[in-house]
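User: tokens in, sequence out, please.
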């Protein structure tokens, strides 16, 4: 499985950062999701996909 991040769909809620702070960050300019490092699909990353309110994070 591969993590897909759709910055255009992101609404900047920050749930991904709260759930998996080692993997995700928010852009200082627009608040949208940024990857800090390549995800290892650990449980916290999978949880972040589930709690994203805009569906900007997906596993495919």
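Assistant: Sequence out:
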């Amino acid at each position: 499985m591969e993590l897909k991040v759709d910055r255009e769909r992101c609404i900047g809620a920050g749930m991904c950062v709260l759930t998996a702070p080692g993997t995700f960050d928010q852009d200082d300019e627009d608040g949208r999701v940024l990857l800090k490092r390549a995800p290892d699909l650990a449980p916290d990353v999978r949880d972040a996909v589930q709690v994203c309110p805009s569906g900007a994070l997906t596993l495919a």
